[in-house]
Automatic annotation (TrEMBL):
The gene is pstS. The keyword Transport applies. Residues 33-281 form the PBP domain. It comes from the Bacteria. It is a lipid-anchor. One of its GO terms (cellular component) is plasma membrane. The lineage of its organism: Bacteria, Bacillati, Bacillota, Bacilli, Bacillales. Keywords: Cell membrane, Lipoprotein, Membrane, Palmitate, Phosphate transport, Signal, Transport. Part of the ABC transporter complex PstSACB involved in phosphate import. This is Phosphate-binding protein. It is found in: Cell membrane. GO terms for biological process: phosphate ion transport. Gene3D superfamilies: Periplasmic binding protein-like II. It holds the Pfam family PBP_like_2.
Amino acid sequence: MKKWQVLGTTVIGASLLLGACGNGGNGGGDSKESDAKGEVKGDGSSTVGPIVEVLNEKFNKKYPNITVSSATSGTGGGFEKFIAGETDFSNASRPIKPEEKKKLDDKNVKFSDFKIAQDGVTIAVNKDNDFVKELTIDDLKKIYSGQAKTWKDVNPKYPAKEIKAFSPDQSHGTYDFFSEEVMDKGDIKAEKNADTNVIVQSVKNNKEGIGYFGYNFYEQNKDKLKEVKIKGKDGKAIEPTKKTIQDSSYALSRPLYIYTNDKKLKDNKAFGTFMKFVLEDKGKSAEKAGYVALPKKDYDDQLKKLKDLTK
């Protein structure tokens, strides 16, 4: 039976407390592993959150005696709790920042990162927008820097209608990714919100709206929105699909992570069992959640890494 507990309200709305069991940091094969007990705590990215929810549903069925909790405070908020020692793992939609790493180093906390899926930050406009079909990175920079006030400022062929730009707020790894990849770490001038569902609705409700979010949020709302192809450095306008996200030909592709506390991973057998389960899933849960699995070899390589960490 599933155990549910509200841990935070973000995009997912609630996180899961779900049972699982295992024996040993490497997951082991002991016939007694279903008798193991333990607790594992995580927090972080609302983009990664849906993947962890699907993983936990599977994990609960196989391992009913270990409790895994996963909240969604955003990538930045998750790292704050990870640094404070409040969690075993931290879900992230961007790599850890140097200043976050330094705080962990100052506390002599060793950590590892595991890539669990691939995502493509999707640019979407209102469904009734019949003129924007593709944009360049420079176009996006004009829009989100505030340089372009109207669509005509982006392209003289577009109408002189005021742009309504929407963005995740600074608690999101998606915001950081966009700031770095599109804005050259410059400020994002847009209406910001912590809840990605609000951003989706804002674009849906504004004929001149534009927003960005993880691929699965577009997939879940593609009847309400219109995706925009993005021109990469090679000049090709490419839309986000499972294929273009996995091979990174889509310009705004990115990996999704789970960061682990190495000492807790080694000492907490339930935690090692959970991480082994995550990697042995080989992206099936990511696909079910609307994201893209990594190549199989990537999971195999990371299972070897996990085995070394849990010896």
